Amino acid sequence: MAAELRRPKVAVCGSGGLGRYITEAIIRAGEWDLVILSRHAQPELAERGIRVKVVDYTSHESLHNVLARQRVHTVISVIPDPDVQLVLIDACVSAGVLRFVPAEFEGSPSQRPLYSSSGRDRMTVLRRLDELRENNILVSTTFSCGLFMEYFVPGGWLGCGGGGWNDGTFLIDLKHKKAVLPIDSETGASAIVCLTSAIDVAQFVCGALSLEEWPPEMKMFGERMRLRDLLTIAETVRDREFKVKYLNEDDIEYNLSRAIASGDWKSQCELQTMRSINYEEYDIGSRDLNAIFPHIRTIPFEVFLRRYWRPSTH
Ligand SMILES: NC(=O)c1ccc[n+]([C@@H]2O[C@H](COP(=O)([O-])OP(=O)(O)OC[C@H]3O[C@@H](n4cnc5c(N)ncnc54)[C@H](OP(=O)(O)O)[C@@H]3O)[C@@H](O)[C@H]2O)c1
Questions:
Q1: Three-class HEC string of the chain
Q2: Spacing, Cα 45 to ligand 1 middle (Å)
Q3: 181 domain-assigned
Q4: Residue 165 confidence class, pLDDT cut points 50, 70, 90
Q5: Which of 140, 155, 186 is the last residue of a domain?
Q6: Does residue 83 line the site of ligand 1, with CB under 6 A?
Q7: Over 90: is that where the pLDDT of 6 sits?
Q8: Which residues belong to any copy of the NmrA-like domain (predicted)?
Q9: Does ligand 1 lie within 6 Å of residue 37's CB atom?
Q10: Model confidence over 183-200: pLDDT tens digits?
């Protein structure tokens, strides 16, 4: 019991989506005291004995009080809203939180040339964290992992309880055996993407909690492959040739301007992600976390897909 009291405390901000995966990994590891910060009471978590604190993310005071009273050591945010994260970061600083993880579990931020430098967006959050880290006020890191493999399960990431736009039809639609792939006009569907299951991402994030030094970015991936190989694996798993449409850079920009004009948010997200893929933002390159935690055996993409899909019968 005494040892348990001495365990440092981690707060996961956001109970759903990736937050749920990270929460489960932390509970399984059993090395950290855990508190979930949520906008709502979470009775099913509380019934399992998981501590949940309801917070008002518009109130610095509400966040400060919870973080200070709970003596939180590390905050992991899965909240995709930059404004909320900026309030949360300020509350972490005033409450004496030592480490912060922003909701950045995608491509490498250092390879993200396309996000605007004006306005409050994800880069604003990262710039604020850079400042705090450089001034030794708050340690932070981003976890780069590429695309979640869960994008390709029935119902996609939304079907896994995540937020956002991915319903399992982006890039490769295994249900309807079709694909829409961004291409380079010279080399075809040659962009490299990294893929990691959210289950593995959560395990690496949990493992990284025990590292004494946190670099500004930590990298992981389960698989690294060209888009055309992603398609080949999907066709092998479904045992069918897919109907494929290719979008070159001009198609992407044209469709994106139309999606923006018509307010088609899902298409905007899909096309922006395709643009990022073409810029190789989802090619993580190296995987330092896989090397540090070799016991975390990441699932290969084909094995992952076969858990959800059978060969097509029609
Ligand atoms: N690499 C990939 O392919 C990929 C795919 C999807 C997501 N991601 C990453 O994972 C992160 C989390 O995505 P997600 O889909 O898990 O997020 P999400 O489901 O939209 O949100 C996660 C949790 O955050 C809280 N939340 C959401 N919006 C909020 C708001 N406006 N204000 C306060 N709290 C809010 C909610 O928890 P409560 O209801 O408990 O408050 C929610 O359950 C993203 O930022 C992204 O970095 C990566």
A1: CHHHHHCCEEEEECCCCHHHHHHHHHHHHCCCEEEEEECCCCHHHHHCCCEEEECCCCCHHHHHHHHHHCCCCEEEECCCCHHHHHHHHHHHHHHCCCEEECCCCCCCHHHCCCCCCCCCCHHHHHHHHHHHHHCCCCEECEEECCEEHHHHCCCHHHHCCCCCCCCCCCCEECCCCEEEEECECCCECCCEEEEECHHHHHHHHHHHCCCCCCCCEEECCCEEEEHHHHHHHHHHHHCCCCEEEEECHHHHHHHHHHHHHHCCHHHHHHHHHHHHHHCCCCCCCCCHHHHHCCCCCCCCHHHHHHCCCCCCCC
A2: 17
A3: yes
A4: very high
A5: 140
A6: no
A7: no
A8: 10-153
A9: no
A10: 987 777 899 999 999 999
Given a cut of 90, is residue 243 above it in pLDDT? Answer: yes
Q: Are residues 16 and 136 in the same domain?
A: yes
- Per residue in 75-128, pLDDT (tens digit) is 999 999 999 999 999 999 999 999 999 999 999 887 775 444 445 688 899 999
**Mean of pLDDT over the chain:** 94
| Structural domains in the chain (count) | 2
What's residue 3's pLDDT? 45
Residue nearest to atom 36 of ligand 1 (CA): 14
Residues 80 and 177 placed together within one structural domain of the fold: no
Atom of ligand 1 nearest to the CA of 201: 1
Residues 70 and 168 in one domain: no
Mutate to test the pocket of ligand 1, among 105, 204, 220 (most ligand atoms within 8 A of CB): 105
Domain, as residue range, for 76: 2-140
Flag whether 285 is in a domain.
yes
Q: Are residues 172 and 298 in the same domain?
A: yes
| Range in 6-15, 18-27, 36-45, 120-129 the model is least confident about | 120-129
Q: What is the CATH number of the domain that holds 252?
A: 3.90.25.10
Shared domain check, 234 and 259: yes
Q: What is the pLDDT of residues 43-84, one digit of tens each?
A: 999 999 999 999 999 999 999 999 999 999 999 999 999 999
Regarding whether 112 and 48 lie in a shared domain, the answer is yes
Cα(162) to centroid of ligand 1, in Å? Answer: 7
Cα 235 to ligand 1 centroid, rounded to whole Å:
30
**Whose alpha carbon is nearest atom 16 of ligand 1?**
17
78 in contact with ligand 1, CB cutoff 6 A: yes
117 and 32 share one domain:
yes
